[in-house]
Each structure stands twice: as C-alpha cells, then as structure tokens.
Amino acid sequence: MEQVLGAFSRRRALMTMAAAAVVPSVVARGSATASGVKRPIADDAHRNGAGFHRFGIGSIEATAFTDGGMVISPIQPTFASGATPEELNAALTKAFHPLDKANLEINVLCVRMGKETVLFDAGNGAAAANRLIPAMMAAGIDPGSVTGVVLSHAHPDHIAGGIDADGKSAFANARWFVNKAEHDFWTAATQTAPDFAFGADAMKGMAAGAQKVFGAVKGKLELVKGGDKVIDGLEFIDTPGHTAGHMSAIVSDGDSQMAVIGDLAHNHVVMFANPAWTIGFDADRKAAVASRIKMFDRLAADRVRVFGYHLPWPGLGHIRKDGAGYEWVIEPWSWNAK
Predict the structure, then answer these.
(1) Which stretches in the chain have pLDDT values below 70?
(2) Residue pair 244/196 in contact by the 8 Å Cβ criterion
(3) What is the pTM of this model?
(4) How far is it, in rounded angstroms, from Cα 63 to Cα 74?
(5) Which residues pair with 182 in a beta bridge?
(6) In 113-239, where does DSSP find H-type helix?
(7) Burial class, 147, CB count within 10 angstroms (exposed 0-12 / middle 13-18 / buried 19+)
(8) Which residues contact 129 (CB under 8 A, 6 or more apart)?
(9) Tens-digit pLDDT profile for residues 29-86
(10) Other Cβ atoms within 10 Å of 227 Cβ, number
(11) Which helix (H) or strand (E) holds 297?
C-alpha cells in the first residue's frame, strides 16, 4: 500500500505553534476595516488552525487532529474485491469520486469530558512525520494532559503514535482502554486472520508493533469490552471484524451524542454505497460487514453525529440510509469553532 504523507516539517510545526501564541495580542488590537473603523475580532481566539478543528458535543469540547493520510491506488483489489469493476466504478462515478485512487485521511479525536481529556486512537507516529503532537500543541492541548486513550484497534496507523522516538509512552499520564479480544489477538504467539490480504509477514510486523506499544504502556493498560463504563458519558461498543476486537464508542452529553466509528468505514463512498464491500485489511470480512450494517442502521435511524477516522477531513458527518446502502453526509468544515 502506497502511503502519501504530506510534509510537516519541524519548521512548519514551529510556525504553527508561534502563530497560535500570538492570537491573544491580535485579539487585543482588533482589526481595521476598509473604513478605518476598528472592530473586535474576539472569535479569532477560538478559530481553528492548521492541523486541528474544534467543535462541540453539547458542552464537551472536542478537537479533531489530522495525522496525515494515505492513498490506495488502484482502488481494487484492496477495496471491494467482491465487486465487479463496473459495479465499483458506477458507485464512484455517481459520487464524483476518482476512479484511480482512494484517499484515507487519518483523523484523531480528542474530547475534554469533565476532568478527563480523552484521545481516540493515537495516530500513525513516524509514518505521519509525527505531526499529531505538534498539532495538539498548536491547539493548546499538552500530550501530558491526556488522561485516556481509547484504542479502536491495534493497526499501526492507529497505535504507532502512542510511543515516542525513545519507545516511551507519548501520553505519559494516560490510561489506555483496549478491547480484551483485541489485546489477546495481538499478544498471542501467532495471529490468524484468514481474510487479511497482505500476507503473514505483514501480520507479524503489525503484531510486533502492537506488542511494542502495549509494552510501553504496561501498567496503564485497561482491558475492556462493549458496554463497560469507565468514564461518564463514554460508551464502548464491540464492532469486530476489521480486527478481532475492533471497538467503536459513543460520546454523550445530555441529548448530544457522537459516534466514533474507527475503521467501520475507510472511504466515504465505497463502504456506504454497498456495506458488503470490504477492504483487504479486514481480518474477518463477514463479521466486518455485519458490524458495519448493524452500526450504520443504528446511527442512521437515530440521526447520530459521526466521527470517522479515515473519512474526509475533519471526519464529521451523518449516515443516511439510501436504498440498500447508505450515504455519508459530510458536516462542512468551519474556520470558527462551534
């Protein structure tokens, strides 16, 4: 799989943090209009910036971070190996999607829930030029303030950012919540996933990476399952198939909810147009399809807002039923925080 990771140099990271640091002085000065009359621009203190997008879930402060992305080209057979080229191209064409490649964003969610600061997945680490940490710093969130990391699953693009260059936890004060079935799979002597399309060596490499992170956070690792309640307003949901213990979550504040769906969908067209179309990284395609349909039906019926790890930046939208399939309805990106 070809990875296309935009350059995020140290220089750019420092420029981003420097820009964030001068915001208060800009707010204090105000802004001159064409007529020369100054007006306050207090909203600038809350504006989103390069690499992050703030929004709310009720009274919960939420921030999406980009950790780069990946490109899959050609789209088949990694995506929708069970579809004919004509079927897939028809769905892509209908949605104005390129026929030759599919982008996979890497969107990491952080929420502040009372005294807790919770990160959903840990990003792609060095493979994404370690851009997550600078983006967090630019948004005013110190990695040391993170109290919890919810791992959807242990594929490298979700877990590699959990350790630093020295092999230590990148979020030193965080508890890690990992589905027990996921942990047990990756820490077993061997891993068996018949539908995984990239071979035994790739699987061994993934297992070694997962074990390295689990070792680094040993003592702060909490094994959970769907329905467990470890933080008020946070519900874990078992959604296996993509991996043995893939886990989604619901973040709630009163009547406001957001579903964090991890890798239930890797593309905003393919897996919505036909939920039976899978990806070669699935461990158990049949289970992945069942989890996707069950969760999509629930979220569409209840009109729940959704955060997707690989969906178009900043990963926010809704799922709408569309005949035998579904449609991803994107929530427009806003320069101003909500």
Answers:
(1) 1-49, 128, 337-338
(2) no
(3) 0.85
(4) 32
(5) none
(6) 132-138, 156-159, 180-187, 199-216
(7) middle
(8) 5, 7, 8, 9, 68
(9) 222 333 333 333 333 444 566 789 999 999 999 999 999 899 999 999 999 999 999 9
(10) 9
(11) helix 285-302
Return d(Cα 114, Cα 161) in angstroms, integer. 25
How far, in Å, are 240, 256, 317, 329 from residue 252 at the CA level?
A: 22, 6, 16, 21
State the pLDDT at residue 130: 81
Q: What is the four-CA torsion angle of 285, 288, 294, 300, rounded to 10 degrees?
A: -110
Identify the DSSP state of 10.
H
Contacts of 301 by beta carbon, 8 Å cutoff, 6+ apart: 321
Cβ pair 136, 98 in contact under 8 A: no
Amino acid at the residue 1: M
| Long-range pairs, 180-184, Cβ under 8 A, ≥24 | 180/223, 180/224, 180/225, 180/245, 181/225, 181/238, 181/240, 181/244, 181/245, 182/151, 182/153, 182/154, 182/243, 182/244, 182/245, 182/246, 182/247, 183/154, 183/214, 183/221, 183/223, 183/245, 184/244, 184/245
pLDDT digits (tens, 9 = 90+) for 154-182: 999 999 999 998 999 999 999 999 999 99
Cα 291 from Cα 302, distance rounded (Å): 17
Please tell me the distance from the alpha carbon of residue 47 to that of residue 121, in angstroms, as a whole number.
24
Count Cα atoms within 13 angstroms, Cβ side, for 84.
3
Q: Residues 6 or more apart from 251 whose CB is under 8 A from it?
A: 57, 60, 62, 111, 113, 233, 234, 257, 258, 260
**Residue with tokens 């780069």, as numbered in its chain:** 68
The two tokens of residue 91 are: 């769905």
Tokens matching residue 133:
């940490």
Run of H or E including 249: strand 247-253
| CATH class assigned to 10-330 | alpha beta
- Position 48 scores a pLDDT of 66
Average pLDDT along the chain: 86
